[in-house]
Structure formats: C-alpha cells, structure tokens
Amino acid sequence: MNAGFLGVGHFAPEKVLTNKDLEKIVDTSDEWIRTRTGIEERRIASEDMDTSDMALRAAEEALKDANLEAKDLDMIMVATVTPDTPFPSVATMLQHRLGANKVAAMDLSAACAGFMYGVIAAKQFIETNAYKNILVVGVEKLSKITDWSDRNTCVLFGDGAGAAVIGPVSEGKGILSFELGSDGTGGPHLYQTPEDTLFMNGREVFKFAVRQMPESSVYVVKKIGLSEQDVDYLVPHQANIRIMEAARQRLGIPEEKMSTAVKRYGNTSSASIPIALSEDVKAGKIKENDLVVLVGFGGGLTWGAVALRWGK
Ligand code: UT7
C-alpha cells in the first residue's frame, strides 16, 4: 500500500511586510533583497496569533480538501521550530482544537526540512498498516525569533502554515521514494541564540543548499528508475530563488514547473513546502499523475526529499 496526499491546505497571516517597509527598519534595499533572494514581500502574524492558530487554519483546509473530518485522523504531527511553548506540543493543541479523537500527537524539530521529515514518517505508519489518515503540518511564527536589527536575516523570513493529510492511495500513486539526512557539523551555521533570536551564516548555508537540493532531487527520481526529464513539477524549500534555481536547472525543467511562493512569503521554514504545494495544487499547476519532487533543507543541517505521483 502506498501513502500519498489526500488533501492540502495553507494559511498566511494578513499583514504584508514589503521590501520597501524593511528599508525603513534596516540598511537594505528592495533591489538587494530581490536580486539576492527573489523575495518581494512576506507575511507577519499579529501579536495575538500564535503558531497553533495558524496551524489550525491550515489543518482545517487540508481536512476539507481531503473530504475528511478531524475524527478520521489517526495521528497528528507538527513540524515547527517556533511552537507556542516548548510543551505542550502544537500537535496536542491541534488535537484538542480540531476535536480529533485521542490520537497520537507530536511536534518534530528538523528546521526547514521538518515538513519533509513529517511526511516521510507518516508514510511509514501508513505503509505498515498501523494508521490510515495522518495530519502533517509545517508551521512557523519566525517573526518572534527574528532579530529586527540584523539585515542579514530579518529580510528573509516570514510567518505561515501549510498542512497535508497523508493516507493510503491507489497503486502507482503517492510517495514513490524518499531521502532523509543530517549533518550536525553544520549546526553552528544556523541556530537559535540564547537570546532567542535566529543566527545564520548565510554563505555557508547557501553553499550547502546549492549542493544538497539538486543532489537530493536527482537521487529520489533515479531511485525509482526515472530520469530528470520525467519530473513534471518541483516544489523546493522556498528559501532563496537562487538556491531553488540550482535544483531546477540540475533537473533541466522549465521555469513554470517550479513553485515560486518565496516571492510572496519569503522563507517560512517548515511551512514553505506545504504552502507552495497547496497553492500550486489549487492553481492547477500540479495535476493528476504528475511526477512531483518535494525537496527541503535547513538548520541542523537537515534535508529531505520525495518523488511522488500526484493523485489518490
Ligand atoms: O531556510 C534556512 C536556510 N537559509 C538559507 O537558505 C539562506 C542561505 N543563504 C542565502 O540565501 C544567502 O547567503 C543570503 C541571501 C543570506 C545572502 O546572500 P549572499 O549573496 O550570500 O550575500 P553575502 O552574505 O555574500 O553578502 C553580500 C553583501 C555583504 O556586504 P559586504 O560584506 O560584501 O560588504 C552583506 O553585508 O551584502 C550585504 N548584505 C546586505 N545588503 C543589503 C547582507 N544582507 C543585506 C541586506 N541588504 N539585507
């Protein structure tokens, strides 16, 4: 039995912070941000909207899209590095607020690769027949750990949530291969400081990402005996258009076959892949039977990728 996507959903807070707005906060320019990152604007959650509030909205949309109710869920996993509190988990808050049965619920921490870790973990429970429908959410309120005086990082990040219901799909559909990995020697390049702000050595993370994203994308496709040209759509972690372009060019697929949500949301860490996926599915850019590659990387360092055949 294969595991695949039964439904997807996303939520982004209303408040838009443009590059022009950032020019008033730090020594930067719209031109620098656009050319170095591809980001035009990002969303920022209000004071009274926490991580679990955004997660709930994305989860509700994913359940609706899957034609399922909360009581149909067998497990809830939330990938986040910005939970409301270290514990209880955002996943248990969702269990309660969605009105799900008293099912397994946990948060997982793999930074920007978190959603990939969640989806691939869900696949194992489903393919061993342990569980049927698993809600996986990627959600971040990065604005609460952003150092608004550091132009190296504050222009990059945004808030938001994406969700998917993973469950059994018919033969030949769903997640066909995956790769997960980590390299803790890169930990000092991206972390939360004791002052609770985000530190990043951008150049080092960039070097790692332009190597890892193309490599993982090709690996998952080759693993199922297909080649780069067979890929119909690429949803890479939306961190920087230049890194995403490296993966697209390595696969040799045209521009319109890659998500570019980064322009409008910036880097939303674990939420970036499910937000982009949900938007592009709803816009009809991803169609039944398309071979889709999802690929993420992040702090840890961590990475994860899947090749999947879209549809139920
Ligand atoms: O999801 C988590 C993973 N994180 C990432 O994927 C981030 C990976 N890294 C990157 O995306 C890029 O390295 C950045 C976008 C962070 C930086 O781009 P870059 O082309 O690597 O620039 P740089 O770090 O080499 O900096 C070039 C110059 C520096 O000035 P000097 O030292 O050459 O005088 C920076 O101080 O740009 C300066 N700079 C800025 N200038 C205007 C850095 N940030 C800004 C800014 N506005 N916001």
UniProtKB/TrEMBL annotation:
- Region ranges (ACP-binding): 238-242
Q: Where is the Beta-ketoacyl-[acyl-carrier-protein] synthase III C-terminal domain?
A: 222-310
Read off the SUPFAM superfamilies from this record: Thiolase-like (SSF53901)
GO molecular function per UniProt: 3-oxoacyl-[acyl-carrier-protein] synthase activity; beta-ketoacyl-acyl-carrier-protein synthase III activity
| Beta-ketoacyl-[acyl-carrier-protein] synthase III N-terminal domain sequence ranges | 106-184
Can you quote a single GO CC term? cytoplasm
Q: What class of enzyme is it?
A: transferase
Biochemical pathway: Lipid metabolism; fatty acid biosynthesis
Give UniProt keywords alphabetically: Acyltransferase, Coiled coil, Cytoplasm, Fatty acid biosynthesis, Fatty acid metabolism, Lipid biosynthesis, Lipid metabolism, Multifunctional enzyme, Transferase
Reaction(s) catalysed (UniProt annotation): hexanoyl-CoA + malonyl-[ACP] + H(+) = 3-oxooctanoyl-[ACP] + CO2 + CoA; (2S)-2-methylbutanoyl-CoA + malonyl-[ACP] + H(+) = (4S)-4-methyl-3-oxohexanoyl-[ACP] + CO2 + CoA; butanoyl-CoA + malonyl-[ACP] + H(+) = 3-oxohexanoyl-[ACP] + CO2 + CoA; malonyl-[ACP] + propanoyl-CoA + H(+) = 3-oxopentanoyl-[ACP] + CO2 + CoA
**Catalytic residues identified in the record:** C112, H237, N267
Concerning CDD domains, the annotation shows: KAS_III (cd00830)
Q: What is its EC number?
A: 2.3.1.180
State the InterPro entries in the record.
Answer: ACP_syn_III_C (IPR013747), ACP_syn_III_N (IPR013751), FabH (IPR004655), Thiolase-like (IPR016039)
Source organism superkingdom: Bacteria
Where does it reside?
Answer: Cytoplasm
Please explain the role this protein plays, according to its UniProt record: Catalyzes the condensation reaction of fatty acid synthesis by the addition to an acyl acceptor of two carbons from malonyl-ACP. Catalyzes the first condensation reaction which initiates fatty acid synthesis and may therefore play a role in governing the total rate of fatty acid production. Possesses both acetoacetyl-ACP synthase and acetyl transacylase activities. Its substrate specificity determines the biosynthesis of branched-chain and/or straight-chain of fatty acids.
Oligomeric form and interacting partners: Homodimer.
Record-given protein name: Beta-ketoacyl-[acyl-carrier-protein] synthase III
This protein's species is: Halobacillus karajensis
Output the lineage of the source organism: Bacteria, Bacillati, Bacillota, Bacilli, Bacillales
